[in-house]
Amino acid sequence: MQGMGSAHGFWELLTGDEQRDLMALGRDKKYPPGTTLCVEGDPATHVFVLLDGWVKILSVTDDGHENVLALLGGGDIAGETAGATTGYRNATMQAIGTVHALIVGYDRFSSFLDSHAGADHVYRRMMTQRWSDAGIVLRTRAVTSGAQRLAGLLLDLAEQHGSRAGGAIEVALPLSQEELASMTGTSRATVTRALSNWRKRGFIRTGQFRITIIDPQGLRQVAGPAIGLTRQLAATRARNDQRSLAQPLPSSPNLRQQRAGPGTDRT
């Protein structure tokens, strides 16, 4: 399973004053579904703060195959690491639905963090969370099947972004089966078989760009070790969200160097 955006993104953890100050440094823009926000290899001159909507982070192989590396949603920040490392985008970002983003030049964003200690603290907590998420994903990959990881991904999406109707959970899922396969490190055939099997067993109901989890407990049993991934990610996000608001900012001799750490955001 690849990266998912946080339940409470960078933007949502800023104070009202911090949001206003950051908004004043950039410009907001809306992108229609399917729009490419940035392309792998382009100069990285700015960061994106996703105010609303979802994007997928893609890497394209030499033969033209697209790998979905991560999904980022409203409140998340994207494109921040490239400006501090290579200076070039190392992935492509594409809007899944309509996306509303705040675009801030990298230098301005870095200066904003220098002058807003609370925002800088939130930012570094977010980067730590991404490190932790990546480690959990890698450890789980070795002990789960593709179908288990797919079940875990659906449960993760339901946990963060699903809407409940009775005992069922409806998840808007504007991703193809090929993209689901890419995110879970398996084949499209495995995704097709798994979804068909789960429909027959009454675990899920599928529609156009939508999945309803009718029997969450049944899907949890299918996920097996992958459900541990979902719970660990949720627990880590909750802890980091709480710490971002409660803990004092530790001193750092070189904040710009610290900001250049990796994350699931590869744009």
How is the topology of this model organized?
Elements: E1 3-4, H1 10-13, H2 16-25, E2 27-31, E3 36-38, E4 46-52, E5 55-60, E6 66-72, E7 77-78, E8 92-95, E9 99-105, H3 106-115, H4 117-141, H5 146-161, E10 163-165, E11 168-172, H6 177-184, H7 188-200, E12 204-207, E13 210-213, H8 216-223, H9 225-246, H10 255-259
Parallel strand pairs: 1-6
Antiparallel strand pairs: 2-9, 3-8, 4-7, 4-9, 5-6, 5-8, 10-11, 11-13, 12-13
Helix pairs in contact: 3-4, 4-9, 5-6, 5-8, 5-9, 6-7
Question: Whole-number average pLDDT?
Answer: 82
The spatial strand order of the largest sheet comes to: 1-6-5-8-3
Gap between N and C termini, in Å? 18 Å
Number of self-contained structural domains = 2
E-strand count: 13
List SSEs in N-to-C order.
EHHEEEEEEEEHHHEEHHEEHHH
- Percent of residues in helices: 40-55%
Which features characterize this protein?
alpha+beta, Jelly Rolls, single chain, Arc Repressor Mutant, subunit A, 45% helix, 22% strand, 267 residues
